[in-house]
Amino acid sequence: MTTKRDRTVCVIGLGSMGFGIAASLLRGGFDVVGCDVNAEAMARFAALGGRIADVPTDAGRGAHVLISVVVNAVQTEAVLFGEAGAIAGMARGGTVLSCATLSPEAARDFEARIQALDLLYLDAPISGGATRAASGELTIMASGAPQAFADVSDVLDCIAAKVYELGDTAGIGAAFKIVNQLLAGVHIAAACEAITFAKAMDLDIAKVYEVISASAGNSWMFENRVPHILEGDYSPRSAVDIFTKDLGIVSDIARGLKFPTPIASTALQMFVMTAAAGMGRDDDASVARMIAHLTGLDLPGA
Amino acid sequence: MTTKRDRTVCVIGLGSMGFGIAASLLRGGFDVVGCDVNAEAMARFAALGGRIADVPTDAGRGAHVLISVVVNAVQTEAVLFGEAGAIAGMARGGTVLSCATLSPEAARDFEARIQALDLLYLDAPISGGATRAASGELTIMASGAPQAFADVSDVLDCIAAKVYELGDTAGIGAAFKIVNQLLAGVHIAAACEAITFAKAMDLDIAKVYEVISASAGNSWMFENRVPHILEGDYSPRSAVDIFTKDLGIVSDIARGLKFPTPIASTALQMFVMTAAAGMGRDDDASVARMIAHLTGLDLPGA
After folding, report:
1. Cβ separation of A208 and B176 shorter than 8 Å?
2. Is residue B187 within 8 Å of residue A214, measured between CB atoms?
3. Which residues of B are catalytic?
4. What is the C-alpha separation between A257 and A175, in angstroms, rounded?
């Protein structure tokens, strides 16, 4: 009988999401190899008892499952297919899970190229943040061949609280994630606009948070991000640059479809303005700081 | 001892919110007089056992509490202070509750003029929709003199599940409501943009609703309004014109403060476009229909 210990899972990208995934798999009894350009993250993973490899090629050698948790399509391309790419030495019939937020087109392209190598591909964008990654309770919006789902069900069980099986080809999971990111990005920008507007009207913004988060104006993001503003804490739980990227993908897809997205495009510009002001790597609630700088408002922690 | 039966409450405006308020008060044992230009609403209220009056002056005569549940500042001005205005014959020391979404400036103006007549004023915008109005479970974002709160506490208990006491002068309640409406309006427009974008990407939009409403992209409005789109039912629970009005107030206040509101202004334009296309009196989820018309998408019920 094959045990989890006999299943080698390679995790490329040990940022906050990838680290949580790798740690969950280790805790779940898999043989896990981690790989990242960040030596500190590698050392932390090794300290947990994980195996580490300096380059993707070495990390992927003999892996039955490869999970790519990098930032975007360019990085996914590089870590999978690049000169030191991870898939070259994977076990025959292995499965690649790609977790980055990609355009549906990029996801379909990766799937075709992976399948041409007799490997399986799962379009598997993730949601839930670092805390739920660490506890193995992510949400995964996945699509791909039924065989791919079947082959990695134990891995998915270990890292996710909820796996949506959205279709049998890549691109569908990516599209669902993009719709989620459109709303998430707009809601963050709107939360920042609303709370600074409240401040401009001299309201007690802690009270505004209390009232609105119990009212019809609430959103998941309003409830989650406004506390960062109230505490004046812009250390990145999720960075501004994530949304310049993800709303940029929305914008690219929409333009390609000749589909107008006035709200998402406006929100994108607010993240771009915040990044332009030097806060791209700070928490995405920094849109509120950008507005406060511009308008001379005094937010907590300014 | 004074009983509720001895307390006359006048409700001006028997639209879906005002009717629910008047019916709740009647059920609660108050002596209630209703007034509306809509004869059908008046007849329905009379059928419940309520008293009715054709003009505000008659409705307000001898009232201890007057609740104005009309659409905007112009109507509030007319029903309170106009030629046939309701406050002229109110009982000495009575209290006026104004429930329309107003600018803080308008609320302060009304308070000053009401207080000059030795009456009390409560800035009392409401939230929760027709269903919660009918069941006496509104949310009220109120501010005003402590004496006004004290004098109408039995009335508030009867119509609201939650009363926020936000300050001791008018304008604060109005400002809280405006922040709520900024977010509510943006979230509706964003929900409509996102769900039509999903349709443009050929996704199963019922599945999108299921996944997103359980994810970080969710908002109170996404969860509440997208079912109208999935059912193709645009009968007005809350109309497009409410948001051209309320986001218009946001825009006016913000311009006055020299405060930029790019997201709210974009959402406002989407409601204006929807009203321009002839759907101003339809459900506010009609923004999705407007986008579908424009882009040739097939939504349910089209």
Report:
1. yes
2. no
3. 177
4. 13
Q: Please list every residue in chain A whose beta carbon sits closer than 8 Å to the beta carbon of residue B143.
A: none
Count Cβ neighbours within 10 Å for each residue of B188-220 and write b for 16 or more, e otherwise. Answer: bbbbbbbbbbbbbbebebeebbebbbebbbbbb
Return d(Cα A111, Cα A118) in angstroms, integer.
Answer: 11
The tokens of B74 are what? 């112009």
Complex-level ipTM:
0.95
**A195-249 pLDDT per residue, tens:** 999 999 999 999 999 999 999 999 999 999 999 999 999 999 899 999 999 999 9
Q: Which residues contact B94 (CB under 8 A, 6 or more apart)?
A: B63, B64, B65, B66, B119, B120
Neighbours of B104 (CB within 10 A): 24
CB contact under 8 A, A224 and B216: yes
- The two beta strands, B95-98 and B65-68, are parallel
pLDDT tens string B28-69: 999 999 999 999 999 999 999 999 999 999 999 999 999 999
Q: Angle, to 10 degrees, between the axis of helix A172-200 and the axis of helix B205-212?
A: 50
- Write down the residue that tokens 């459900």 correspond to: B283
pTM of the model: 0.95
**Coil, strand or helix at A33:** strand
Is B175 in contact with B117 (CB distance < 8 Å)?
A: no
Any CB–CB contact under 8 A between B87 and chain A? no
Neighbours of B105 (CB within 10 A): 16
For chain A, list the domains and their CATH numbers.
4-170 (3.40.50.720), 178-295 (1.10.1040.10)
